[in-house]
Structures are given as structure tokens and as C-alpha cells.
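Hi L.,

You mentioned the student needs an example of a multi-chain input paired with its predicted structure. This one should do, with 541 residues in total across all chains.
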Amino acid sequence: MSATGKLQPEPYETARAFCITSAFWMVVATFMGLLGATELIAPDIVRIGWLHFGRIRPVHVNLVLFGFVTPGLLGAVFYFVPRLLRTELYSERLGLVTAGFWNIALVAAVSTLLAGATQGREYAEMIWPVDLLVVMVFILVFINLIMTVARRREPLLYVSVWYACAAIALTGATYVLGNVVWVPDTGSLVGIPDAILLWFYGHNIFGLLLTPLSLGVAYYVIPKACRNPLYSHTLSLVGFWSLFVVYTHIGTHHLLQVPVPTWLKVISIVDSIGMVIPVMVVLINLWYTAQGRLGEIHADVGAKFVFTGTIMYFFASIQGSMMALPQVQRVTHFNNWVVGHAHIGVLAFSGMIALGGLYFVLPRIAGRPLHSRLLADLQYWLVLLGSAGFAVVLTIVGLIQGQAWLNGETVYRVLPSLYPYYVLRASLGAILFSSAVIGFYNVFRTLYGQRGAAA
Amino acid sequence: MYFPYFATYMIVGLGLALLVAGWALHNGQFGDQQRARFLPLAGDPPATDAPALTRRGRLEVYGLALVVAIGLAGTVAVLAFALLSG
Ligand code: HEM
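Structure written out for the whole complex:
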């Protein structure tokens, strides 16, 4: 609170609230992941019904998406949108209320999912009342952003502002649709149309929420850290519009083995390959901006996270385009290869950029240096090790499973050969959980520690 | 029969997107792209010569390049395998 009035929130209070939200839920989300990975090695280790793998998994996934990554990215968004528009956030108070409801929604999601109340559709497991809370917070965030845009003093909208506003508006809309909120009991349609709708929504969570928010953060942090203007703003707008034209069509590539109409599969495959265009447009633009200035990137731990995230974006996307080919999916579908891809996308790309955005804005919103640059560096290496390790281990497991399936091998006979990799996977989970604890401590001390305690 | 609903959604979505694009065009959002490149830098001191990459920094870059190379090599190998194994 400011010195002038107890009830007047300080500038960037909303950004701070989202940063600490992200850091806290990262700890819980990675713990759930670690617990799930441990249960895959030792299924009987926890004999408590509500901590069974089937309940832990959706909690882990939803917390990573809505607890760790999205709030982390929003922490940066609530900092850079007003700055880019040369104005103040429309309402810090509304922002704080939003962050409060966001956390209430997360607590509600965790408790209902652990209690076994689920709608059983991937990424849309949360039950109706929680869905309504989620939609509400997206509407509140959108109101705050769009009103800030309306009150801007800078006439031009920088590409990061476009990305942030579009991500929130589109996700609010597809969330309602994908969770079929007009059917509260089941939250689903019936039959194949439900599968199509679910994967339209499921892919949009990555394509229309995590990707645009992450790219918006990268487009802000990289020029700023390099102190270099963006290589081309025109190119960035081409990337922006083409992302939405192409990404919205590709959800059905999750359903290539399902009796959905062939024309829809063809569109999804063609556009998955077409994704190379928006992806490379963005990366060429960002990498040219940073060209010759890696020293500046290295000097700022936030920028380092973000830059690494862009490399992982390249990776996840090129891999994704190939995974949409039916010939490749014969081996990679329905096994841990896809889980590997998911971790490259959500953790190594979006998660890295969320952490980068958070660390980049943290000293600016806290008005003091990071509590410990060393701990932030340590977290960087742990996250890199964990996510690269996941990519390798899960890919190997996926290949073993995919080949076994193709050869008609019985599942239980394959399990022993997977075991060592599952142990490795749980160890990597432990690394990521430790990194989250370190991160939470560092963020907390930076925001709320005693002034002048920088290390 | 859900397709009429899907089609309606797509038409509304396309309409809204065109509307926003039209607004952007009229509002001059696609003009003055040179200035737009500098927007994140507003209020920052002008760029000095970039600091040279430290030894540790260089090692980190090599480390990252290695991660990328291993990943790409693995991906290419799987693609080749999937396509060649018929
Ligand atoms: C050009 C971009 C991309 C393409 C074409 C693509 C393609 C694909 C395909 C084909 C699948 C389904 C694989 C299967 O079930 O066999 C998939 C799954 C997945 N993708 Fe991507 N991907 C891309 C980028 C990303 C990014 C950037 C993220 C994260 C931010 C991401 C997150 C995921 C996740 C989480 C899954 C797992 C879904 C599940 O639970 O089954 N993808 N992707």
C-alpha cells in the first residue's frame, strides 16, 4: 500500500501478486508431478485414495497450466502492458481482486480434483463451478487489459500488447466452448463431435494461451535486455496474425487414429506443417534482434531464461509439425513420446519464458535487485537439466513403447524395460521440484524480504 | 448434429477477427513500423557496446548448442526411422 492512502494499491501490485502466485503454485505443481512419477515406479507407495495417480495427474497438469505458467506470464504482462502503452494499469485494485479469485479457483480445482470430482476430459477436467471461476478471472483480466489499451497515451500497439490481449480474449472464449459450460452436468457433448471440440480447445490452451503469452513476453524482454530495437515489427505482426490463422485449425491432429472426418484430419495435418511459418517468423525476428548481443542476454538471468525458452519453442514446434504426420504417429502416438513433447512445450518453452519474464520484471516491480542472482542461476540450470532430461528420457520410453506396440508385444512384458527410465524421470522430477522451492524462496525474499538484502 | 453450431462459431470468430483487423488498419496500427520497433526501449539509456561474452557465458552457449544438437539429431533419427521402417 502507498504512503498516501492505506487503500490505494501501489503500481505493479497486480504484477507482484501474479509473480508470487506463479512461484507458489510451481512448488505445488512440481510436487504433484514428482508424486505421480514416484507412483509410476511404486504404484502402492501411497495408499490414500485421493492421492492416487488418477487424481494426481490432472491436478499436476492443471496446476502447471493455470497455476505456474499462466500466472508467471501474466506477472510480466501486467508490468509491460502499461509501460508499452505509456499509461498506468486501468485498475490495480481490480488486478488484485483478479489474482485473489485466481488463487481461489486454483484451490477449488485442487480440492475438487483430489476429491474425485472430475469431468474426465483431458485439460477440461475441472467441474462446472470451477469452470465458471476460471472464465470469470479471464474476463476480469481482459477488462483490465483492454481498458488499459483504451486509456493509452502511446497510439501504436506493440506486438506484445496484441499477443497479451488476444491470448486472454481467445482463451476466455475457447474455455467456455471446450468445457461445454452450457451442459453443467457432464461438461461435454456426445460422441465424436465432443472429441473434436475437446481437442480444438485442448490445443488452443497451448496455441492460443501459452504460446501467445510467451511470445509476447519474449518480444518485450529480448529487445529490452539487448537494448536493441526489434529486428522488424512488421514481421512480428505477420507472425501474430498467421499464428491465429493457422493454430486454430490443428486440434484434430490429436485425433488421427479416431473416426473423425478425413477432410478435418487433412486440414489439421497441413496446417501443422504450415505452423513452421509463424514459428520461424517469430524466431528469426527475435534471434536477429539478439544477434551479437548474447553478452547482454547472459548478463540478465530473466533474459537468459527467455532466450532459452525461444530455442525450446523451435524444438517443440518442429517436433510437433513432424508428429502430425500419420506415418510418424504410428510410432509416437499414445505413449510417452507425446509426454516428452508436452514437457518440451509447456515446461521448456512456456515455463522457461514464464520464469524469465518473472525474473526480468521482479527487480523492476520490487524496486530492488533480486534477492539472489546465484539462486536464480541455479534454478535456471536445474530447470534446463530437468526439462532437457525429460525430453531425452520420455522420448526413449516413447520409442520403446511405440515399437513394442507396432510389433504386437504385450504391454506387461514391456514394463520391465521401462522401469529404469521411470526412475530417471522421477529423479528429474525431484530436480524440478527443488528448483521450484529455490525459485519460490528467491521470489518471496525479493518481494517481501528486508530492503537492502540483495546478494 | 453439431456442425451448424461449429460453423456458426467459425463464422462469428472470423467476423470478429476481420473487425479487429479492420480497426487496426484504420487506426494506423500497420503504419510507422519503424517507430514501433523501438517501443520496448522507451525510457532506456541508449545502447552502448554490448559487453563481451564471459568465459562462463560462452560455455553456457556451447552447452545450449549441444542440447539443441542432441535434440535435433534425435528427432531426425526418429523421423528417418519412422519413414524408412515402412
Ligand atoms: C508448430 C507447433 C506444434 C505442433 C504442430 C504440435 C503438434 C502436436 C501434435 C501432433 C500432438 C499430438 C501427438 C499425438 O497425440 O500423437 C501434440 C501434443 C501436444 N503438444 Fe504440441 N505441437 C506444437 C507446439 C506445441 C507447443 C508450443 C506446446 C506447448 C506450449 C505444445 C504442447 C503440447 C502438449 C501438452 C501435447 C500433449 C497433448 C496430450 O496430452 O495428448 N505443442 N502437439
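You could point out the following to them. Chain B touches chain A through 49 residues (CB under 8 Å). The pocket of protoporphyrin IX containing FE is lined by residues A 122, 206, 210-211, 250, 253-254, 272, 275, 279, 316-317, 320-321, 323-324, 329, 332-333, 338, 341-342, 345-346, 349-350 (CB under 6 Å).

Best wishes,
N.
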